[in-house]
Automatic annotation (TrEMBL):
UniProt similarity note: Belongs to the histidinol dehydrogenase family.
Protein name per its UniProtKB record: Histidinol dehydrogenase
Gene name, Swiss-Prot/TrEMBL: hisD
Top EC group: oxidoreductase
Record-linked InterPro entries: Ald_DH/histidinol_DH, Histidinol_DH_CS, Histidinol_DH_monofunct, Hstdl_DH
GO biological process, one term: L-histidine biosynthetic process
Function in brief: Catalyzes the sequential NAD-dependent oxidations of L-histidinol to L-histidinaldehyde and then to L-histidine.
Length: 429
């Protein structure tokens, strides 16, 4: 890995470099995606099945687009019992964590006859998109469905691509069934997002769409936003490790590569105050790449978006980490909790040498759907909050309103909204 000194100039250059990975910079695909989305909106199933045949080589129709109970039962016979048990353990950890995020309606009353409050309501229907291309991610199935279940969403509609034989990954079906998906449909790509957003004869319209996908899925979510809600437009995965001379270089190198293997555009960055550690991590990275199965993807990711930054002190390292606002942030220092208190921007923070990033991806419980491309400065991980909405509650008695009606009328008249003022005034004629 390249080793560079952390300066104001290098930090700016790296931030500029990382922003090139944003889905917003792939406008060349936008016209294609818009055509697909509009076609599915206008022609429904006919367009959806046509694109499925074109892109996935599968003959899907109204009779087989919905995954059947028998298909799910067969999937269980294709997955190792030990993996099913691991999926169940992970599901319970995710459920337990997200149950602590629940919000409840509340009301506050006043002796004068005023009652104010907030009514919390779960969304009626949510669409969960699950990729089905080069890799299979049952962990993402759990992470997207479980917060919706905890929130109380009634209908959780999942779509995922099938192969040319019309089959869906067995582990995807098992995870979806364990998490409690209401229905699973064989549809992928931009056409699936359009089907969820607008509804077709076979796939019902939803209120919100969540879940990761390729550039076509990301751009389709952007295209339908406003007609439905979405979680985010996710970019490639990224990890940043803050480490000092006490860190184990083998652990750090392994953790950096755990994200680099996701995508050729994934980013892996180490910020350290130790030159010796930097050199050892770089050497370990080279050794690991020789034996890892996705070495071509990893090498391209590391060569393009991988950095080891040498900082003069921990304060500079923290400042740079906050500027980068990484999706995943590991802290492997002598005093990791002290460093953690100074971190303002990160999707998920992993503390200490035994809290490696894959722990969060699969098992610990916090959600692994995280803000990318610096959006951790203003976005949060997927949570129960993403699956609820809030309504304000206002009640005033006549006596309570009478006490303040002149103030309200005065305010309304100052904005030249006389009908607003009149709406209050008529009650005290």
């Amino acid at each position: 890995m390249r080793i560079v000194n952390l300066t104001e100039e290098t930090r700016k250059n790296i931030l500029k470099d990382l922003l090139k990975r944003s889905p917003s910079n792939f406008g060349s695909y936008a016209d294609t995606v818009e055509k697909i989305v509009n076609d599915v909106r206008d022609r429904g199933d006919e367009a959806l099945f046509g694109y499925t045949k074109q892109f996935d080589k599968a003959d899907i129709n109204a009779g087989n687009v919905l995954v059947t109970k028998e298909e799910i039962e067969y999937a269980y016979t294709q997955v190792d019992e030990k993996l099913i048990e691991v999926i169940r353990k992970a599901k319970e950890n995710i459920r337990t964590y997200h149950e602590k995020q629940r919000q409840y309606s509340w009301f506050d009353s006043d002796p004068k006859g005023i009652m104010l409050g907030q009514k919390v309501t779960a969304l009626e229907s949510v669409g969960v998109y699950v990729p089905g291309g080069k890799a299979v991610y049952p962990s993402s199935v759990l992470m997207n469905i479980m917060p919706a279940k905890v929130a109380g969403v009634k209908n959780i509609i999942m779509t995922t691509p099938c192969n040319s034989e019309g089959e869906v990954y067995a582990t995807t079906l098992v995870a979806a069934n364990e998490a409690g998906a209401t229905a699973i449909y064989k549809a992928g790509g931009a056409q699936a997002i359009a089907a969820l957003a607008y509804g077709t004869e076979s796939i019902p319209k939803v209120d919100k769409i969540v879940g990761p996908g390729n550039i076509f899925v990301a751009l389709a979510k952007r295209a339908v936003y406003g007609h439905v809600s979405i979680d985010s437009i996710a970019g490639p995965s990224e990890i940043l490790v803050i480490a000092d001379e006490t860190a184990n270089p083998r652990y750090v190198a392994a953790d950096l590569l755990s994200q680099a293997e996701h995508d050729e555009m994934a980013s892996a960055i180490l910020i350290t105050t130790s030159k010796e550690l930097a050199e050892k991590v770089s050497a370990q990275v080279d050794e690991f790449i020789k034996v890892l199965s996705r070495k071509e993807i990893i090498r391209k990711s590391i060569d393009t978006y991988g950095y080891i930054l040498l900082a003069d002190n921990m304060a500079d390292a923290v400042e740079a980490a906050n500027a980068i606002a990484s999706e995943h942030l590991e802290i492997v220092t002598a005093n990791p909790f002290d460093v953690m208190t100074r971190i303002k921007n990160a999707g998920a923070i992993f503390i200490g040498e035994y809290s490696s990033e894959p722990l969060g991806d699969y098992f610990a419980g916090p959600n692994h759907v995280l803000p990318t491309n610096g959006t951790a400065k203003f976005f949060s991980p997927l949570s129960v909050d993403d699956f609820i909405k809030k309504s304000s509650i206002i009640y005033y008695s006549r006596e309570a309103l009478e006490e303040v009606h002149e103030d309200i009328e005065s305010f309304a008249k100052s904005e030249q909204l006389t009908a607003h003022a009149n709406s209050i005034a008529v009650r005290f004629e």
